[in-house]
Each structure stands twice: as C-alpha cells, then as structure tokens.
Amino acid sequence: LLEQAGAAERGGDLPAAITLLKQAAVLDPSHQRSASELKRVQADYQQSQFNEAMTAGYAAMDAGQFDAARKAFRRAAQLQSGSSEAASALQEVEAAATAHRLAGLQSDGARDEQAEQWQQAVSAYEQAQKIDPNVMFAREGLARSRDRARLDKQFRAAIDEPQRLSDAAVAQATAQMLALAQKISPRGPVLESQIRQLEKLLQQANTPIGLTLRSDGQTDVVIYKVAKLGKFEQTDVSVKPGTYVAVGSRMGYRDVRVEFTVKPDGPPPQVTVACTEAI
Q1: Where among 157, 176, 205 does a domain terminate?
Q2: Chain centre distance of CA 61
Q3: What is the pTM of this model?
Q4: Which residues contact 191 (CB under 8 A, 6 or more apart)?
C-alpha cells in the first residue's frame, strides 16, 4: 500500500495517495511511516488546494468577477486558517470591487452630463459619494450637475405648463431664468432647444391678441385686471394670452359672470356678456 501510495503521489493523484495511506494506517496502526507519510501528503494536498483557490481568486479578480474572487479567497482562508495571504487577498478584492464600482459611476455620470440628463448624473455622483465621501470626481460632478438639474426641471415645468406664463410674476421669474440659461456656455442641444421653446412661449405670452366682445348696450361690463368697458353692443379689446373673467351688471338684473381663455395659438373666443335675468 505504501508503494501504491507513493506511485499515486508521483502521478499527482494526492487524494488517491491519501486514501491508500489511510488504509495502510488502519491495517498497521503501529507503523509510524504510514502515519508520517499520511500527515505529509495531507499537508501537501491542503497546500495544493490552497494554491489553486488563490490562483482562481486572482484570475476571477482580474476578470472583474468579484463575487467569484471572494468565494475563492474565502475557501483559501478556510483551508489555511489564519493565512495572512488569504486575508490580504480578500482586502484586495474589496478594494478592486470598490474601484470598479466608482469607475463605473464616474463613467455613468460623465455620459449623463454629455446627454444633458442632469438628474441622472446627480444620482450617479451621489451614489459614488455614498461609497467614498472623499472621491473628487463625485464632488466636482455634483457641483456641475445639481444646478443644471434644477434649471432643467424649471425649464421642463415652464414648457409643459405655458398657461402659467399669463401670471405676471411667473412670466418675470421665467424671463430671469431664461436670461441665466442664455449665459451658459457651452450649451448642449437639449438646453438650446429648451431656450428656443421658452423664448417663443414668452413672446407669445407677452403678445396681445385682439378679440371682440358682444353685449346688449345696457349692461356695464368689466374684465377683471384688464379694464372697465362700460355699456356697448360690440367692442374690440386686446389682451395677452390667459384666462379672464368678465362681469356684467345692470340695474334690476342679476349679475352675470363669464370666464374665457385666450390662447396664443388659436382663434380668439366668442364672448358675450349681457344681463338677461330680471330680479
């Protein structure tokens, strides 16, 4: 059995050699050579397994397969309890995985900035800061992206709800925002398009539109926040796009209230204001 075990060892089949040496030790427990050979071959086999696990771990780490690398290095640590080599390798894989994740977030942030996807860029840089609060690219990226994300959100809201521009305060704030955006250089195609759209919307919001109001010649008519028109049968007025309320009053008749909307890109509404219900 000892000779067979030696042949198996020379052939590289250490598990077979261990099995044969165990059999020899059972047959002759007092045979010291069997016990010493078994101990030696078991140690060699354990070292071989350790080396294989370490090699597999570094190969996986080089390939960016960090979970597989962790698994291999943990197996190596189990094979050699207290191994400084395995402990160091586990620290290396954690550092490599962190660096890989940060590099990916840096790439994501840069790509999102290039595409003018500012909120996504903010998200990428914030994730990077959670991993490492001191990483410089995330700090600088957030300084660039947060203001642009805020501006982009404001632009989208103004473009999606142009009717709000009929409010003078909103129109003034929007004009200030537009002036700020026009100073940005260089500007990407998304911002350029937003600027053009908002310039057009502001121009439309500030361009009066003529419309004809009809009444009965006996009703006093007022358009709130515009003018007192008095009595008329037909009159022309010019107002900026927006929603208005006209109120008619006549002695002995119930007041009438007419709400109408003037759109910048459509025909003016037909508005008639006349008190017809006697009290």
Answers
A1: 205
A2: 28
A3: 0.66
A4: 116, 152, 155, 181, 184
